[in-house]
Amino acid sequence: MCGVLGILGRYRLDASKELLLLLAHRGQDASGLLWATESAFQESKTMGSPSGLSVQREWSECILGSTRYPTSGRRVSSEDELCDFVGPFQSGAVAVTHNGNITNLSSMTEKDYQCDTKFICDRLQHHLAESDDHLPTAFVRLTSEVDGAYSIVGIHDGSLFAFRDSRGFKPLVFGRSAEHTIVASESTVLDMAHVKLERDVYPGELIVFGPNQAMQCYSISQQDGHKHCFFEYVYFANPAARIENQLVYDVRFRLGRALANRFTRLQLEEPDYVIPVPDTSRPAAQALAEELGVPMREVILKNRYLGRTFIVQSPEARNAMAHYKYIYLDDKIRGKNLLVVDDSIVRGTTAKMIVKDLKKRGAAKVYFAVTCPPQSHPCYYGIDISTSSELIASQAGLEQIRDFIGADALIYQDMDGLVNATGIRDICLACLDGNYPTEHAKKIQAAIQLRDKKQGIRDYEREIR
Ligand code: AMP
To answer: Does 445 map to a domain?
Structure first.
């Protein structure tokens, strides 16, 4: 997961930084802006959120923006690494940023790329050089060689272009006004820029935007079924975003309703409160509370100024950070039956910590409900769950997980509940059922099953040819 942004039409750089901030939740490792001047591209990159980007009140006709979530290459550890690790990238006359993950990178090049976006940019430049600078032909060639998920925004020859892989894993939307065309991972960016959302870029479609709202669409590669990432709805996207015509907030609300059904069937003692784990699960907790006729209370508050615990490498450091992540309203906990709702359990660190904290504060019972079914397979398409060994649901069954987190009951969403709540049929469920929709990912899966699962290496970064 990363955030991408493209702007065509005279726009201020400091204002484009504000737009990029709306995608900060999609990647907090590093951020970048690249813009066209009369003679060249210029860029500004920073570690962490876009707020660190140093841009002036200058204007540009064409701007790209990127927030990075590393699912290929290391995390950025110093300013010196920014140029190799963080998009947008430039190669010759083309500049590119991308959201997704190229699964066959290690089998395509000997070069040690720290970011697959740089690879895409170099390949695109290569294919442009071989095809008389014809962008659609370059994309036909690019898509025939790379496997994985890639929603791309770029600049070429004074135009802005947008491309989405043929399965449409990652979101990409656009809109046009009299002055501006904006392409972004999430529609909230368009709202903020007062540009009306026109539609999603179709899977397999290349759109080249020119001045005066001109736009040319090319069908580059098609698949029978699309595979939109369901986890965008469950976790990644802003609840105010609209993806494939579904408001993410509404999907999360429906996930909560479906969970209420499952909870009722278990005939457990009635909870006193439904409690969201901030922030993603709030709409689901609201729906769950409404369905059960139980009040929702924000008993768990997030310590906003702590960095992200999920990306911390060592289990000890992760546990220590998880401890500082939440603050509790003790008065609403003592002697109560609590139904806690979170969007997912990956390693189980967060759930275990929360249950322990609530019990320590005197909760009578803690039920733990999860809006997503068990994630038992690694994702190769851009979620940072890249080895099965880090997924508790790939190692343990429901009862063992419940026991591990210390809850009195554990209620997971089921597949039907999830699929119905998203409101779309053609979604990628590979991290839940292991059915990877692309060829190279299937190969990785088969090869990994035959090998030792070495800790600390992403499955798709092993050499599998
Ligand atoms: P864990 O503590 O390892 O079980 O991770 C679960 C917690 O991390 C949940 O509270 C989620 O909101 C959050 N989470 C789940 N998936 C991701 C992801 N791919 N990247 C960052 N955070 C995540």
So the answer is: no
CA–centroid distance, 239 to ligand 1, in Å, is 17
Distance CA 196, CA 198 (A): 6
Largest CA distance in the chain: 73
Residues 142 and 253 in one domain: no
Average pLDDT of the residues in 251-255: 98
Pocket of ligand 1, beta carbon within 6 A: 235, 277, 280, 310, 342-351, 383-385
**What is the helix (H) or strand (E) element at residue 28, kind and residue range?**
none
CATH number for 356: 3.40.50.2020
Are 259 and 341 in contact, with CB atoms under 8 Å apart? yes
> Which of 344, 402, 410 for mutating ligand 1's site (highest number of atoms within 8 Å of CB)?
344
Q: Find the 309 Cα to ligand 1 centroid distance in Å.
A: 9
Eight-class DSSP state of 150: E
* Nearest Cα residue to atom 11 of ligand 1: 344
The answer as to whether 454 is a domain residue is no
Q: What is the pLDDT of residues 88-133, one digit of tens each?
A: 999 999 999 999 999 998 888 888 888 889 999 999 999 999 999 9
In a shared domain, residues 407 and 276: yes
* Cβ proximity of 373 and 432 under 8 Å: yes
Q: Is the pLDDT of residue 74 over 90?
A: no
Instruction: Mark whether 62 and 203 lie in a shared domain.
Output: yes
| CB contact at 8 A, 188 and 119 | no
Task: Render pLDDT for 374-397 as a digit per residue (tens, 0 to 9).
Answer: 999 999 998 877 788 889 999 999
Q: Whose CA is nearest to atom 5 of ligand 1?
A: 346
What's the whole-number average pLDDT of the chain? 92
Structure tokens at 391: 């997924």
Residues serving a catalytic function are 2
Range of the domain at 214: 3-226
Report residue 261 as tokens: 């059904």
Q: Kindly give the distance from the C-alpha atom of residue 417 to the centroid of ligand 1, in angstroms, as a whole number.
A: 20
Nearest-atom number in ligand 1 for the CA of 281 is 12
Out of 260-274, 310-324, 365-379, pick the least confident: 310-324
CA gap 183, 174 in Å, rounded: 4
Atom of ligand 1 nearest to the CA of 348: 4
- Residue 342 located in a structural domain: yes
Name the domain count of the chain.
2
In the reported structure, the alpha carbon of residue 322 is separated from the centroid of ligand 1 by a whole-number distance in angstroms of 11
Determine how many CB atoms are found less than 10 A away from the CB of residue 80.
Answer: 9
| Token output for 254 | 């429906």
